[in-house]
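User: I'm designing a mutation panel for Protein kinase domain-containing protein and want to avoid disrupting the core. Could you give me a predicted structure to guide residue selection? Please restate the sequence first so the numbering is unambiguous.

Assistant: Good idea. Sequence first, for numbering, then the predicted structure tokens:
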Amino acid sequence: MMEFVKSLGKGSGGSVNLIRVTKPDDSNPYYHAVKSSNYYDCLHEEFQILSKLRDCPGIVQTFGASLSRGVNDQGSRVYNMSMELVEV
């Protein structure tokens, strides 16, 4: 199960949220960041670049083979990219 925890930031291209993921047995939850945008082309281009750099040290890693599609609180279509959570 995925659960919204808090907003990590917002900019002109979208927003990034902290998501908690739990397994059905509630063991060892983990966290990741999800970047959401109304602009498919921009987010898809970023996803493609990060996918080419997968496993490179110092580069945020993406999860999944593609973007996911959803609807935001205002009922607008959004595109989502799951990424590792990097804390500084």
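For picking mutation sites, this is relevant: Residues 40-52 form the longest helix (13 residues). Helices lie at 40-52.
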